[in-house]
Design brief:
The chain is mainly alpha-helical. The protein is built from four helices and two strands. It has one domain. A two-stranded antiparallel ribbon has the order 1-2. α2 packs across α4 and α3 packs parallel to α4. The termini are far apart.
Length: about 90
């Protein structure tokens, strides 16, 4: 994987996980494990997708579930986890 591809994966987490799960039919947990192994120093920034109204579209519900499962693995592997709301960071781990 080139550094440009690595940068894309780190910066565009939402697109990358959507492709891996919905288009490539990869297990989100396995994807996250592979990502963490390949990019141990990555800083992952992800949107909160689990709050709010549950989408009607099945694909969107699957995507939300996949992102949540993948981010749980990323959080387990991370040295630290910070949740940021309105510019205020709260250290979780």
């Amino acid at each position: 994987m080139s550094s440009e591809e690595s940068y894309y994966e780190a910066v565009h987490w939402r697109r990358t996980i959507r492709h891996a799960v919905l288009e490539a039919h990869q297990d989100p947990r396995e994807f996250a494990r592979q990502f963490c192994a390949a990019h141990p120093d990555a800083i992952v920034v992800a949107n909160e997708v689990g709050a709010g109204v549950v989408p009607i579209a099945k694909e969107e519900r699957l995507f939300r579930e996949a992102v949540g499962r993948a981010l749980c693995i990323v959080a387990q592997e991370a040295e630290s986890v910070t949740r940021c709301v309105c510019g205020i960071g709260v250290r979780i781990k």
